[in-house]
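Record type: monomer structure entry
Structure origin: computed from sequence
Chain ID: A
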Amino acid sequence: MIISDRPLSEVVPLEITNQGEIVSQYEKESIKDLGLLKMDILGSRSLTVIKKTLEMLKKNNININLSKIPLDDKATFSVLQKGKTLGVFQLESSGMSSLLRRLSPSYLVDLIAALSLYRPGPLDSGMTEHYLKRKRGEEEIDCLHPKLKPILKDTYGVILYQEQVMQVVSVFAGLSLGEADLPLYSGSPAF
């Protein structure tokens, strides 16, 4: 998805695919060079399942307001801590289920961390193990530099998110967050 303050037809060449979708003829690097915002939005069958479930419930006079579902429900986190995730989008694989049992999530931020930890990079580098040990107090949290503490305090001294990389670059290189984001997309070996 490309976001612009003007009609895209005035900014980039567009075409219609065989599936009827309107797409840019430019690659993502050119889109960014034009100052446009490109967002990768993944489709999910799970959203359709949720929508249809809500519609079926409504036909039976059961109305559920998704925005009223608490994000800190203890019973829900108890189930997740046991690794009972069958049918839960992005959490149902056996590996993720095992990670959740070891992570013992109690808050939404723990689930967000789990989604980042269960990737080839963190798993292969040992980052996931460091995070788990530090969360449980089995390993000292070492931020390497005092300026990193506010950036890494919520992730136990582990750089887990792209936003943290941007903050580190911003702090140590004196760049704005927008400028700090550019090397991440250029494939720069600086990281």
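Annotation 1: The longest helix spans residues 45-59.
Annotation 2: Residues 142-184 form one domain.
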